[in-house]
Amino acid sequence: MTDELSLDGRTLVGVANDESGEVSADTRFEFEQDGDRIHAHYAGGTIVEGHLVGTLADGRWDIRYVQLHADGETATGHSVGTVTLLDDGRVRVDDEWEWESKEGRGASVLEEVE
Question: Which superkingdom is the protein from (predicted)?
């Protein structure tokens, strides 16, 4: 991991997602990082509460997530993504995800907001 790719203290939102995805521009991810370990709390849109945990090494994350929806449904999944630093210093994640608790897979993009 390089210091410039640390997610610690950063807030990211969804900027693109496939149809079977549930993260949107209203979903905010608040990250913490300790070494290669990352975790985040997220919520927004149809997601009441979500948590992700995983690792970030060499610009690539490998995470598992669990979330609760407004209708009471829970969902879990796994994703791997490429974390890059944009020219303006913000972080972008190009993510490939797959549900583990139901059918569906896709790609999404998260970007840092101030």
Answer: Archaea
Number of H helices, E strands in the chain: 0, 8
Task: Please give the Cα distance from 33 to 4 (Å, whole number).
Answer: 12
48-80 pLDDT, tens digit each: 999 999 999 999 999 999 999 999 999 999 999
Q: Please state, as a whole number, how many other Cβ atoms lie within 10 Å of the Cβ of residue 81.
A: 22
Query: Within its chain, how far is the Cα of 24 from the centroid?
Result: 11
Tokens representing residue 50 in the block: 């979500």
Low-confidence residues of the chain, pLDDT below 70?
A: 1-4
What is the distance, to the nearest Å, from the Cα of residue 54 to the centroid of all Cα atoms in its chain?
A: 10
Asked if 111 and 25 count as a contact pair (C-beta separation under 8 A), the reply is no
Q: Tokens for 85? A: 């630093």
Of the candidates 50, 27, 23, the one whose C-alpha atom is nearest the C-alpha of residue 39 is 50
State the pLDDT at residue 2.
43
Residue 4's pLDDT is what?
58
Residues contacting residue 3 through CB under 8 Å, at least 6 positions apart = none
